[in-house]
Design a protein that fits this description.
The complex is a heterodimer. Chain A is mainly α. Helices cover 74% and strands 1% of the residues of chain A. Chain A has one domain: Amino acid/polyamine transporter I (Up-down Bundle), CATH 1.20.1740. Chain A has 21 helices and two strands. Chain A has a two-stranded antiparallel ribbon. By secondary structure, chain B is an alpha/beta fold. Chain B has one domain: HUPs (Rossmann fold), CATH 3.40.50.620. Chain B has five helices and five strands. In chain B, helix 3 packs across helix 5. The chains are: A mainly alpha, B alpha/beta. Chain A: It is found in: Cell inner membrane; Cell membrane.
Amino acid sequence: MYRTFTRAAAAAAGLSLIGAAPALAQSIDEKVNQLFASSTGWFVNFIFSPFPGTSFPWIVAWLVIAATVFTLYFVFIQFRAFGHAISLVKGDYSDPNDAGEVSHFQALATALSGTVGLGNIAGVAVAIGIGGPGATFWMILAGLMGMASKFTECTLGVKYRNEYEDGTVSGGPMYYLTKGFAERGLPGGKILAVMFSIFCILGALGGGNMFQANQAHQQITGIVGEFPGWITGVIFAVVVFAVIVGGLKSIASVTEKVVPFMGVMYVLAALVIILMNADMIGWAFGQIFAGAFTGLGVAGGMVGALIQGFKRAAFSNEAGVGSAAIAHSAVRTKEPITEGFVSLLEPFIDTVVICTMTALVIIISGQLVSDPETGLYLVTDSGMIQTADGSSGVSLTSAAFATAFGWFPYVLALAVILFAFSTMISWSYYGLKAWTYLFGEGKSKEITFKVIFCIFVVIGAAANLGPVIDFSDAAIFAMAVVNVFGLYFLMPIVKKELHSYLARLKSGEIHKFH
Amino acid sequence: MSGKFVVGYDGSEAARRALDFAIERAAAQGGAVLIAHVLEWSPYSFLTPTELEERHKRRREELERAETALMAPVVKEASGKGAEIESVIRYGRIAEVLCEIARENGAGQIFIGRNGHSAWGARVFGSVASALVQTAPVPCTIVP
């Protein structure tokens, strides 16, 4: 979703602050940065450290290995259950008497609005910009594997959620780590749950909040020109406050309706561009396959393409991070496994469809410059592939779409702002759930977290907080360390559920209602 | 022909007229009236995470409110006019659910009131009446 591109973007936000505030504020800012960087740098370095002698971060390997293990353990469940997942989303198996309860579609749509965002637009551009077209192949592969991780965590999320007397529910890794470990007689569930919750709060404030605010501000300044980031921050914070504290449903429901519309529109625009260049589709896939195994001249060759692709998929769809398990827990179903099936569509839509669209548009629109004689891509000193107008990140995606529709960058900017907003709303909820897990439920405790969250919106939009963003990204991946570790111990429970469900589906005990 | 009539009821003036009209007919032939209230709902709408969490609770509250504020008074009032009165509350698309209720209960007719949208308004927002006449499994009476 985030951890996409650019420290330069964050730096630009910092510059705007300099423009607005006296040097004093700047030096305070620097001090905060230095203090924060020196005290948390070890953690960031640890999480993102590469295997010795390579540039391959171990955390990416951790997620890809987990996805592979779950894929094999559940015997390619993402392909076997794909059709059934679609039936479930359509409501074929929903009891009509449950109308008015949360449907599979609604749980999926809400979880998706938390993951579809900057990563799909800007992050892919970075991956392609460094790893070349070949990165797309590895990204799709990792996205397909990640479906099995989502399946595992979301099944557990529903199975071990808390259902309270007033009818509300709370679910997520902190609950299945505690209850699932206890059920299997394993020690340490509570410790894992507490660790997960701490990382989740930090990740929510950072990647799910500050980074989003920061990037939204970049988009706005890109259109109206430079102005201080705190202005964007305050506006965003007021709107977020109105939604999460004031319960202002109208804004939230407008966003929740506009965001899917934007997502569909983005994919349609990409499809139109691809079809307009139908004669290039074969060539583009040729580049993707050739690039995947040779690199076509990119920095690091085949391994370079592979790292970029894997990284992008893992960062974009959050499979294994545990965040989606929180969102999926509210569905109305007697069978936890059904939500697992539905959730495996999430990495498919996020990575295999939307990210791939972005990649194809960038490749087909000819943004990447290659040597006409050798067919190899030209790489700049910084390790990036040379682009037609020198752009990278979100501006590369923007430029690629602008080759077909001159007005598209404006729509894209609006989409990024809305995606950023909906991601913030989702993560404010994930953070809140972790917060109440640690400190207990209660109005004043919830308000405390929500106010902190809004303050961080302003900080995120206003300041150059590179180290803070690094740290919060690291926190999100630390969630994955804890979550995946727990999933390995809990996956036999999911397998039991799966076998029981499939047997009853076969016998006709579980049947379609429509 | 079955003696049961389904009446779509939402508390409006028009619904009231439809109900009175149906009761009169049912009483004349010694039949029953099933007052149906449908809460508009689509399983394909988009909700925030907080709305998801509270959905079950809200649903319960909505059903309670519909029962106490809307259905209980009207059932009380409609009883004793010569027709047997029953009531039902459901979620879904109004026209679709009314058809389902009619089918499940073996009803002979559906009655609804017309809320008097202009033709243009009905075209834009869709109209329960026109959806119903297109799809209903039994005869429909639209009471103006």
